[in-house]
Amino acid sequence: MPHGDLVLSHFGVIAPPLPSHYRVLQSLAAELISRGHRVTFIHQQEAHRWLDHPGIRFHGIGLESHPPGTLGKTLRLASLPGGPFSLRRLIEDMSRTTDMLCRELPDTLSHLGIDALICDQMEAAGGLVAEALGLPYASVACALPVNREAGIPLPVMPMDYRPGERAEKMYEGSTRVYDWMMTPHRRTISRHAKRFGLSHRDGLHECLSPYAQISQTVTGFDFPRRRLPAHFHAVGPIRSFSELNQTLPFPVSPTRPLVFVSLGTLLGQRFRLFRRIVRACRELDVQILLAHCGGLNRQQVDDLQKEGATWVTDFAPQQAALARADAVICHGGWNTVLDALATGTPLLALPLAFDHHGSAARVVYAGTGLRASAAFSGKTELTQKLTKLLLEPGFRQQLSRLRQEVTSAGGTCAAADIVETLVRPVKVRECLP
Fold this sequence. Notes:
Layout: E1 10-14, H1 19-34, E2 38-44, E3 57-61, H2 70-79, H3 84-112, E4 116-120, H4 124-133, E5 137-141, H5 165-181, H6 183-195, E6 212-215, E7 232-234, H7 241-244, E8 258-262, H8 271-282, E9 287-291, H9 298-307, E10 311-313, H10 318-324, E11 327-330, H11 334-343, E12 347-349, H12 356-365, E13 369-371, H13 379-391, H14 394-409, H15 411-420
Parallel strand pairs: 1-2, 1-4, 2-3, 4-5, 5-6, 6-7, 8-9, 8-11, 9-10, 11-12, 12-13
């Protein structure tokens, strides 16, 4: 039921067409729909594949510049970022998508009768178009927040947090490198900001909402920030009730430790890394549940089972797996890390790309797990670090503290409350399944 005298609204969702981002925003959309609102995701037609909630609408645009097959190319670039040339192609692809959205969204939003926007922080077009049209909008950080602050390294940089002038200078230098690499995208943002008659801006961090910013993190798991805006809200993981209530379809033994292994929805094709992880786990006589998210073929699955993996599957119910697991080995993807915080599961993070490095740095900083190199850590090192996670109580003690913070942060219900303030101030209510 809707809140009191709240006017029911039509929210548009603008986000990069990536499964992990759509998963988060679909959970938020489902909660808004349960309150009586309408929600429409808007992007290239192929992005519709990431939505499976019957009440969510989808409107495809950009057919001329983003015909069928375009999304597949984007996902291949994202799954194999590789060296500087591959990364450059990914940034150029990101630029083309932002350009398409900036060109086509204004007329589309008017045609659909959108009242307010929910914009992923990783897609600048949402904020730019919302400001140009005078629409209220919320910026949602599905990944690590892009909000910049002196003394805090960018999420994409492989740097730990260190206080002091020397560290700040190092962070400033790394930021200049990042901005140089992002030049194609920065130019696209700048060009459309000028075309819309907005103030100059050329970065994602300059396209965030002045009304509401929502982050999946919690304060205790981030580096010590001091300059976040008053309308920044750390609500914890945004998940659907169906995700939280799933169960494992495997007969897990209660007498042997369980290690959950996942490299996320885009990076599950790394067979050699999976094999190294399985061999490391095998030394400890643990049960191994490995989810490759469709990245491996039948022969590779069989090979991993022969190496000692107990279960190898495409997808596993992640919340249920983490709730039962004694440790998780992952790539440092933000959703997996936050789910581990919510279940109190120690982490061994093997960062591969994007903001995985920033996520892994926070795992270590918060004392909730360890980090190793996906490229250079051998079986022995992985076994030693996994042993430490399983035996030392300090990780679970820290996780217990953060788990309480996650529980009290509000999650999906709090995020929906905040979004509703875009259209009319409301009272906070309790979310019910």
